[in-house]
Design a protein that fits this description.
Blueprint: H1 2-19, E1 33-36, H2 50-60, H3 64-70, H4 73-76, H5 83-90, E2 91-97, E3 105-112, E4 114-118, E5 127-130, E6 137-140, E7 152-158, E8 161-164, H6 168-173, E9 180-184, H7 187-196, E10 198-203, E11 208-216, H8 224-230, H9 241-250, H10 255-259, E12 266-271, E13 288-290, E14 301-308, E15 311-321, E16 331-338, H11 340-348, E17 350-360
Parallel strand pairs: 3-16, 4-10, 13-15
Antiparallel strand pairs: 1-2, 2-17, 3-17, 4-9, 5-9, 6-7, 7-8, 10-11, 11-12, 13-16, 14-15, 14-17
């Protein structure tokens, strides 16, 4: 039955990919609607710190994905004298909008959490942070169905069948076949580390460890804020990282119930640097964003217009990360750094958003 279900699932995904209306405007943006703009249409762009943007652009260009988008401009940037002229001369801003002609989306924020842990399990430090399990199987469908190159099946072998991998609740009830990086002192902090993707861990021996996302169990991410609204614990307009944490802290007997609503479980690996995104670069506060790479390629230079911490935010940023909750063309998650102030802003940030993408003026249009 499971085998038949998998075949049906693959067939449906394949057919949906074939039927999807082609909206390609550029080779690097296969499903994104764009409208050509001018720099004067970008709010406060002339007030941008162009030298800082240039430094970020050069750093961004150390990745293959960015070089694929910006080509020789990655080389030219190293010899620039006038940074403002460089950007205005070589790039064109394009407004990103949706198939439904909508031009406004959502900006949220994330941060680098700080956890306390030990390399050894104890009465205080008892919540494990796992590496990717040895029995987690990842099936890449692209070798058989190229149209499904963005899809992965994750599971484990049971007999001669591939079955779904353990959910969050199931993993707690059995021994996980994975190495433990460390044991932290709070299951709530561990959960929010999964949401943020990476963080720094202060060990009880005085050392600091950086850890980041490595894999996940294959189950779809589900926001626990929605569950709290569903059970009447919070009102929709009151949902934030702070309100969720406060509710969990005051209802310790229901923590597992709420956390298990999100069947997705993240696995980590130790890193040599601070918060690192999917592009492999260390994230820069207020210059790095997580996007949905189905619409915005990693490595892209973007311009955001939103409100952050009750102030207008109009700034150049770089698409250097992804996230399970970041879905859609006009959707971004702004990295705000580490510390209490970053947490405070990130936890409450929900702002209407407009996005432009900067593309080279010499970019070839797709023949599609």
């Amino acid at each position: 039955m499971i085998k038949g279900f998998l075949i049906l699932l693959i067939s449906l995904l394949f057919l949906s990919c074939l039927k999807r209306e082609s909206t390609t405007l550029f080779d690097t943006l296969p499903h994104t609607y764009l409208k050509k703009s001018e720099f004067k249409e970008l709010d406060r762009y002339d007030s941008e710190h162009f030298d800082t943007v240039l430094e970020s652009f050069i750093n961004n260009c150390t990745t293959k994905k960015a070089r694929k988008i910006y080509g020789d401009l990655c080389i030219d940037a190293k010899y620039v004298v006038d940074s403002e002229s460089f950007f205005k001369k070589n790039f064109t801003p394009y407004r990103i909008y949706t198939k439904e002609q909508e031009d406004e989306g959502l900006l949220t924020g994330y941060y680098e959490p700080h956890l306390f842990a030990s390399l050894k399990k104890s009465k205080r430090y008892k919540y494990p942070l796992y590496e990717t399990p040895n029995d987690l199987i990842i099936v890449d469908l692209s070798s058989i169905y190229p149209a499904l190159k963005k899809y992965r099946l994750r599971g484990r072998i049971e007999g001669n069948r591939l079955v779904p991998y353990d959910t969050r609740a199931e993993s707690k009830r059995k021994k996980v076949d994975a190495a433990v990086i460390c044991y932290c002192d709070s299951k709530i902090d561990r959960f929010f580390l999964e949401i943020q993707g990476s963080g720094r861990v202060e060990l009880n021996d005085g050392n600091t460890m950086f850890i980041g996302y490595d894999n996940q169990n294959g189950h779809k991410y589900r926001a626990i804020g929605r569950y709290l609204v569903k059970i009447g614990a919070l009102k929709l307009q009151d949902v934030s990282l702070q309100s969720i944490r406060a509710w969990l802290s005051t209802h310790p007997k229901r923590v597992d119930e709420v956390l298990n609503f999100n069947k997705s479980l993240v696995y980590f690996k130790e890193r040599s640097q601070g918060a690192t995104g999917a592009l492999g670069l260390e994230l820069t506060p207020k210059r790095s964003v997580a996007v949905d790479r189905s619409f915005i390629p990693l490595g892209s230079m973007l311009y955001l217009n939103a409100d952050v911490n009750a102030s207008s935010f109009s700034q150049t940023v770089f698409a250097q990360d992804t996230g399970g909750a970041i879905k859609g063309a006009i959707r971004a998650d702004l990295f705000l750094g580490a510390g209490k102030s970053a947490l405070e802003i990130a936890g409450k940030l929900k702002s209407p958003l407009k996005i432009w993408i900067f593309l080279p003026k010499k970019l070839k249009k797709s023949s599609k």
